[in-house]
Amino acid sequence: MTTASDRSLKDRAAEVMPGGVYGHLSTGKLSPNYPQFFAKAKGAHLWDVEGRKYLDFMCAFGPNLLGYGHDAVNAAYVDQLALGDVMTGPSPVAVELAETFVDMVDGVDWVLFCKNGNDATTAALMTARKHTGKATIVRAKGAYHGSAPWCALGDAGVGPHDQADQIFHRYNDVEDLERAVKQAGGDLAAIFVSPIKHDIIIDQELPDPAYARRARELCDETGALLVVDNVRAGFRLTRGCSWTAMGVTPDLSSWGKSLANGHALSALTGADVCKAAASQIFVTGSFWFAAAPMAAALVTLRILRETDYLEHTVRLAEKLRTGLHAAAQRHGFGLRQTGPAQIPLVTFEDDPELKLTNAWTGALVQRGVYFHPYHNMFFCAAMTEGDIDHALEQADGAFADIKG
Ligand SMILES: Cc1ncc(COP(=O)(O)O)c(C=O)c1O
Q1: What is the structure's pLDDT at 301?
Q2: Which of 63, 111, 120, 387 has a CA positioned 20 to 30 A from the CA of residue 251?
Q3: Which residues contact 113 (CB under 8 A, 6 or more apart)?
């Protein structure tokens, strides 16, 4: 709940930071019950600046996959920090991590490390343009790939040419994809897709295998590159590349968020076919080779390989989905629960303006369970059966709260 301290921090932030807290972490569009600032996080929980505890179903919008402050991951981070982090050259850990990635994920022959997801998606765009010598990209309407001018939301500060050479299509619509590719004529550099449709506000969609296969074929027919943007869903659907289960291997994939379980690291991975192009584009950053996040990522990837983190989160997520459905019905509400259970979007039926959804998630936050009304949520491996029971109990209470 917004408290005096939280309000005062928001006021102070507004004085010295543009818009106060900006971007996806801003609570500006949420119910006033949402705290803006957090003092600490551990496992599946957050504590606001008044010490109130929340079971967190946002997981920092994705980076928290194994649990906040994961002991083994953080020990590797701290050990590497003592040895050297940002240095005049990379640490050997960079090579070890790239080798690990290549061994672990099918279709990945090389890795280019960077910091944020947007660095990786931008490097994908540049690699595709260099590889093909063409400019146009086809991507899905409503899909988010970052905040650089080529993919920023809205037009504030975006120049008239920044988003030129882009053609949009409807996700999962084979005919519309074919139409967009045809419209690109001979100038197609890449088809960009997210592994699932995880746009904000509207229902999420799993990929239709026919759509995924057609995207691959169209790239093969035209010489364009297929880019799967795994920044948000990576390692949450499978331990490998998100479309491999459908028999579709992308040429390029972007990763970030959970790669180092909350430490700042992202990556563009690719197939041999476009390695030369990736080596010719100019991309770099002062902190891209920081060794401590890479040491954290090495441990994260080992844990992903060696534990049942994925099966565990899916099991808990399905329990929550089933329990929420039953609780909503008991109170006479209908819920729309879309997307994979472990990356869920939960809204109410017949609630186009999200009034009920906002009221319910606001009530849940007040009860110490952090749900989001219009962005997909995330599970982490630190959650327990007891946490889900607690969330269901509070969800039941929140349905009762909003009935009036
Ligand atoms: C699918 C996808 N791609 C790219 C990005 C950009 O990542 P970052 O915010 O780390 O720059 C995001 C961020 O939410 C994302 O969800």
Answers
A1: 98
A2: 63
A3: 94, 97, 98, 265, 266, 267, 288, 289, 294
Scan for tokens 């049942």, then name that residue: 308
Question: Given this model, what pLDDT does residue 2 score?
Answer: 62
Q: Does residue 347 line the site of ligand 1, with CB under 6 A?
A: no
Residue 376 Cβ < 6 Å to ligand 1: no
Would the CB of 63 count as within 6 Å of ligand 1? no
Type of residue at 125: L
Rounded CA-CA distance 139/171 in Å is 8
Ligand 1: which atom is nearest the Cα of residue 146?
A: 6
So what's the pLDDT on residue 1?
Answer: 54
Chain centroid offset of residue 400 CA: 32
Beta carbon of 256 within 6 Å of any ligand 1 atom: yes
Which regions of 3-96 does DSSP assign to beta strands (E)?
Answer: 38-42, 45-48, 53-56
pLDDT confidence of residue 241: 87
Residue numbers in the chain where pLDDT is lower than 70:
1-2
Identify the pLDDT of residue 404. 72
